Structures are given as C-alpha cells and as structure tokens.
Amino acid sequence: MEVDAHPMARLLDVLRVEFGLTGTKEGCGEGECGACSVLVNGELVNSCLTPVLQVEGATITTIEGVAGADGALSAVQQAFIEQGGAQCGICTPGMIIAATSLLARYPDPTEAEIRAGLAGNLCRCTGYVRIFEAVRKAAAG
Amino acid sequence: VQWDDDAYRGDAYGAYAWAVYVASVSVDTATCETRVDDFVALQEVGRVLHPVLAAGQIEGGVAQAIGYALFEEVIWRNGRMANGQMTNYIMPTSMDLPPIRVFFEERPYAHGPFGAKGIGELPMDGVAPAIANAIAHATGAAVSKIPITPESLMATIDRQREAVRV
After folding, report:
1. Which of A10, A58, A96, B164 is the most buried if burial means most Cβ atoms within 10 Å?
2. How far is it, in rounded angstroms, from Cα A122 to Cα A14?
3. Of B56, B87, B91, the CB nearest to A130
C-alpha cells in the first residue's frame, strides 16, 4: 500500500489517520509503554518513535493483521480471551503484537523469557498474571 | 440499617469486602532497593461471579499497589505534577512483580447482585502496608511513608543510626 506522508510523520499517525488502522493505540507517545507496538519486517518496534520514512518498502504487521484472512483468531488472541488477558484494553493490541513476536523467537518460552519479552509493554489493569498465562497457553497450542 | 433507594437514605455501605495480604520482600542492604519476592492475597468479596476476571481484578490491584508502595512518587511543582510521564513516573513492568497468588473466601452477600460485593478497590488499600511491614521486619527501619524508594529507605535507616549514636 502506498501513502503520501511527511517523512517525519510518526508511523503510528500514518497507520491510524492515513490507513484508518486504529487498532494500534497511542499510550505515552514517548516509547515507554509499548501500546503502539507493531512489527516492521518481523521486528517489534514502537510506532510512536518511528518516522515513516524509515519503513519505506517494509512489511508492517499491526493488530489488524494478526488474525487470519478469514477472521480466525490467532492462538495468542484466543488465549488472551480465554485467560482474561485483557481488561481495559488499551495495552492489548501492543501486548498481543509483543506476545506474537516473543513466541516467534521463543516458541516454548520460560517464565523469565515471557517477563523479559513483555517488559516493554506496560499494563495497568491485569498485573500481567493473566497475560503470562495467555502466552503460556498460546505456546502450548 | 437498610438502604432506601427512593429516599436515598440509610446504610450506603452495607457490604465491606475483607482481605488479608502477605508480602515477602528482599532488601538489598547496599542499595536499599526492595523487591517483592512473593505475594498472597486472600479476599472475601461475597460471591465470585467470574473466577477468571475476579482473580484478574485482584492481581491487577495488587500490582498497582506494589507500584504505589515502592515506585510511584508524585512530585508536585507549583501546583502541577512535575513527573507526569511514563519516563519519570515509574510503574511496575512485567519484570518488577512477584508471583501474585489470589485466594477467595466466598460468603454470598444477600443484597448484592447474585451475592457479589465490590471487588476492585480493596487491593489498593492493604498491599502497601503489608510491604512496609515486611520491609520493617527485614531491616528494622521504621518506615512511615510511601513510596519506599531506595533513597527514602536509606534516609530512614541513616536517621535511625544517627539517633542511636546520639
């Protein structure tokens, strides 16, 4: 997909405003909370800190692209629902992207790997416990 | 005393929830940094309507309150919060929290929806005192304010040592 945007526009704004992909959330806007996480060529990044010029020609995965084309939820999404991994929801899209990235790197993660892999994504509601359980459940398949 | 919804009078708080909180902490004696190693919450919340979400509410409340106890310092300057950013107002990440083990004691409340009482607020109340008491037990420091940052704990311990010397 192509878009004309200011080179220094934040990837977050281009996704939300130009493409209408509002699943990616702005939390802090300063790279601390991870709510705006997306994958750029499979790498986990904060889209609030990414000028759009840096992703020319890149493949971007947002939360909208995590489910299958037929709408079937991914294992991570399904596990978040079953384990209560979402409460208010503002961290959830970024958390699911981060969990997806974590499981791509560590298909059977230890507790320490889960904690480290999600440390860039703040959650105020859940205390992370149910999110860890969702990741474990998604890993178990 | 009964609550009268028409007159809006009576006992508005007929159903207090109850809880017991137990914290296990380690304090680094060189840096005065505190880590919560384990946390147990026993909650009486009437009837538990949704076990997964109910536990999630308590776990989340405990996590917030661990931040309240140890990290979350609000700095006021000229009537405004000076550190209102995630960069300098520090809340717990997934790396900062212990296992949070939640247990429920169910005593259905006759006047609540399906026997439930309120559930979300209570874990903000008792957790910081539990942690402060655990730190006092570990270090002997008479901790009297939160957040118990390394700087504030070090100052408390130093003050107590000075007082002993005098």
Report:
1. A96
2. 23
3. B56
Question: What phi and psi values does residue A60 have, to the nearest 5 degrees?
Answer: -110, 130
Instruction: Determine whether B121 is an active site residue.
Output: yes
Contact B85 A30 (CB under 8 A): yes
- Lookup result for tokens 């026997």: B115
Nearest chain A residue (CA) to B89:
A32
Taking the Cβ of residue B53 and every Cβ of chain A, the question of whether any pair is shorter than 8 Å is answered with yes
**Burial B65-98, CB ≥16 within 10 A → b, else e:** bbbbbbbbeeeeeeeeeeeeebeebbbbbbebbb
**For A88-100, how does the pLDDT look when each residue is reduced to its tens digit (9 = 90+)?**
999 999 999 999 9
Tens of pLDDT, residues B73-105: 999 999 999 999 999 999 999 999 999 999 999
Reported ipTM exceeds the 0.85 cut: yes
3-state secondary structure of B133: helix
User: Could you tell me how many CB contacts below 8 A there are between chain A and chain B?
Assistant: 70
